[in-house]
Amino acid sequence: MRSIILLLAVLFILSGCNSNMKIEGYVIQKDEGKILLFEGITKNQLKESLESDDPLELSYPAYSIRVGHSTYQEIEIGQKVAVEIKGGIDDAYPAQANAKNVRIISE
């Protein structure tokens, strides 16, 4: 019985390691190979964020995501993007992650 529970626990942990987390939101800032992304905001909230001196004070779900050089050059502030995360997400505000893939969403 113990070995079955242990086996199920290991399988549960391993299945979580293979999942691909995806985040979708608006790019608020770019800095040194990272983009600041607000998830789940409206166009009006995007405008408010872009006009703010310190957008992190607005307390929207935020992610600082490290992207590759060519992706960093391609992405513009205000664009909506979908990001597939490589590895895990570090708990902080904003949350820290590395991008596996970034797709610009046309609106």
Brief synopsis:
InterPro entries: DUF3221, NA-bd_OB-fold. The chain has 107 residues and is α+β, with helices and mostly antiparallel strands. Helix content is 29%, strand content 40%.
What labels describe this entry?
single chain, alpha+beta, five-stranded mixed barrel, 3 helices, 5 strands, 29% helix
CATH class: Mainly Beta
Q: Which runs of at least 5 residues are low in confidence (pLDDT < 50)?
A: 6-16
Question: Globular, elongated, flat, extended or rod-shaped: what is the shape?
Answer: globular
Structural class: alpha+beta
Q: Within the largest sheet, what's the order of strands?
A: 1-2-3-5-4
Total number of domains: 1
> Could you tell me how far the N terminus lies from the C terminus, measured between alpha carbons in angstroms?
54 Å
Separate helix tally: 3
CATH architecture field: Beta Barrel
The fraction of residues in strands falls at: 35-45%
Report the oligomer.
single chain
Portion of residues within helices: 25-40%
**Integer-rounded radius of gyration:** 17 Å
Q: Based on DSSP secondary structure assignment, what is the total number of beta strands?
A: 5
* Fourth-level CATH superfamily: Nucleic acid-binding proteins
State the CATH topology: OB fold (Dihydrolipoamide Acetyltransferase, E2P)
SSE order: HEEHEHEE
Instruction: Outline the biggest β-sheet.
Output: 5 strands, mixed, barrel
- The overall pLDDT average reads 85
